Amino acid sequence: MIVHIVMFKFKDENKQENLLVAKSKLEELLSKVPTLNSMEVGINFANEARAFDLSLYSTFNSKDDLKAYAIHPEHLQVVEFIKKVAQESKVVDYEL
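The structure corresponding to this sequence follows.
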């Protein structure tokens, strides 16, 4: 199994609204991208300087399934939205 984790730090402008929209758009991918096995999306509540605003934890059967997800048109639409409202992201991919 492949695990794909992404953390996002959002811009201050319309931050709360953009977090909710991003969370919803990401969660909708579960029904739209066949290679995506599972997904959890969480909005951070910690008030630490090192904290990010939103995290995504998703699983795939294989690296090829993750690659297919990365280029899926529905995923790319969400990526375009997040690029507009986020200022930073970090990713970790690993195999179990």
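The domain at 2-95 is CATH 3.30.70.100 (Alpha-Beta Plaits).
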